[in-house]
Amino acid sequence: MRLTLREQPPERLDLSVINPASLAGLGEREIAELDVGTSRTGVRLGDCFTIAPGTLDEIRIEGGSSRFDNLGLGLAEGTIRLEGDAGQRLGFGMSGGEIHVSGSVGPYVGSGATGGLMTIGGDADDHAGGAVHGAKSGLCGGTIVIRGRAGARVGDRMRSGLIIAERTGPYAGSRMIAGTIVAGTVGDHPGYAMRRGTLLVREHGVPVPSFVETGVHRLVFVRILERVVRPFAPHLAELAREDLHRRAGDLATLGKGELLTPHQ
């Protein structure tokens, strides 16, 4: 199935309906009548997109916008490919399938996801894989790959899964419950208030003072992690082949997390 954007939307759109489970059994006219507006104007899917029916195994969207919210919400199977940008909560609560975005995305990508794969060709705003306000956890499974720069608090309160990013802002892995973040460069205070989990990074900004040195290691877990990361970011997978300087923390909380960087 292919959707082609006619023009930039007049308001933020709730694109949670673009999902194989929601579109199954619907005809072209019924799909066009689906409500995607977020105001009183009553925007329908057909008002914004030209619809070319086809198999729902792969939904291709040509043309993006930072006003595209909730795309891939609850996705369980199939593939969504977006040529362009997306708004907030991409892949929110998804449990399977794949979402591929060529451009940049808004905040909270992958929040609450329990499975599946999300790849972002551009940048991601704050809280990628992080918990939305009032939620107990952020990413709970699956993989998020950000080929550009991610904002602040990547993986905030993430419980499980893997986040790969080229660069991130401050507080990467803040309040992590568990899970893994692999990045080239992260900002100040990585792992702030983390309980468990792993941050494997090439370099970082100002460290959290309540982390402690535990020496230089070659960890079996990291060698396994290398095989997982290599298909998405071969240059970051090389970090796992180096002797790694380990810091444990955050000792202001449970203190069973770790920050791993190449030994100089």
What can you see in these coordinates?
- There is one protein chain.
- By secondary structure, the chain is mostly beta strands.
- The chain has helices at 20-23, 28-32, 45-48, 220-229, 234-237; strands spanning 2-5, 13-14, 49-52, 58-62, 68-69, 79-83, 98-101, 117-120, 140-149, 160-167, 180-186, 196-204, 212-217, 244-249, 256-262.
- The strands form two sheets. Strands 3-1-4-6-7-8-9-10-11-12-15-14-13 form a 13-stranded mixed beta sheet. A two-stranded parallel ribbon has the order 2-5.
- A hairpin with a 6-residue loop joins strand 14 and strand 15.
- It is elongated.
Residue share in β-strands:
25-35%
Largest sheet: 13 strands, mixed
Arithmetic mean of pLDDT: 95
What's the total number of strands? 15
> Rg to the nearest angstrom?
19 Å
How many helical stretches? 5
Spans where pLDDT lies below 50 across 5 or more residues: none
Content-based structural category: mainly beta
Question: What topology emerges from the helices and strands here?
Answer:
Elements: E1 2-5, E2 13-14, H1 20-23, H2 28-32, H3 45-48, E3 49-52, E4 58-62, E5 68-69, E6 79-83, E7 98-101, E8 117-120, E9 140-149, E10 160-167, E11 180-186, E12 196-204, E13 212-217, H4 220-229, H5 234-237, E14 244-249, E15 256-262
Parallel strand pairs: 1-4, 2-5, 4-6, 6-7, 7-8, 8-9, 9-10, 10-11, 11-12, 12-15
Antiparallel strand pairs: 1-3, 13-14, 14-15
